[in-house]
Amino acid sequence: IRAVILHLGAASVPEVGPFHLTMTAVEGVETARAFSSAMIIPVHYEGWAHFVEGRTEIARAFAAAGIEDRLRWLEPGQATRIEL
User: Fold this and answer.
1) Angle at CA 83, nearest 5°, toward 81 and 84?
2) At CA 47, angle to CA 45 and CA 39, rounded to 5?
3) Within the chain, how many helices (H) and strands (E) appear?
4) CB under 8 Å to 31, separation ≥6 — which residues?
5) Block means of pLDDT (10 residues each) for the chain, length 84 residues?
6) So what's the pLDDT on residue 69?
C-alpha cells in the first residue's frame, strides 16, 4: 500500500455521546505507523462544526511523531495528482 486516505477531524455529535465519527490525529498517527511506507492523505477534517480537530492539530501530531513528511494535503476544489 503506497497511499492511505484517512478520515480525520475527530468529528463529534451529541447523538453518539463521547464517541467520535472520524479518527483523531493521534489515531491517524497510529494508523500511519501501520502503513510505514505509505503517504498519508488526510480528508474530511474541516468545514463543518462537528470537527474537533483541524489541520493544525493533525500536522502537530504527525510532527511530534516525526512523520510529518508523509502527509499530503489536498486543497478543496483543486485537482491533485498523487505521484506514487
Assistant:
1) 140
2) 30
3) 2, 2
4) 4, 6, 23
5) 95 88 96 96 88 94 97 92 82
6) 96
In 10 A of CB 17, how many CB atoms?
A: 8
Q: How far apart are the C-alpha atoms of 69 and 37, rounded to whole Å?
A: 11
Q: Find the radius of gyration of the CA atoms of the chain.
A: 13
User: C-alpha grid cell for residue 2?
Assistant: 503506497
Side-chain half-sphere exposure of 81, counting CA atoms within 13 A: 1
Q: Which three cell numbers stand for residue 43?
A: 480528508
Count Cβ neighbours within 10 Å for each residue of 64-83 and write b for 16 or more, e otherwise: ebebeebbeeeeeeeeeeee
- The single-letter DSSP state of residue 14 is G
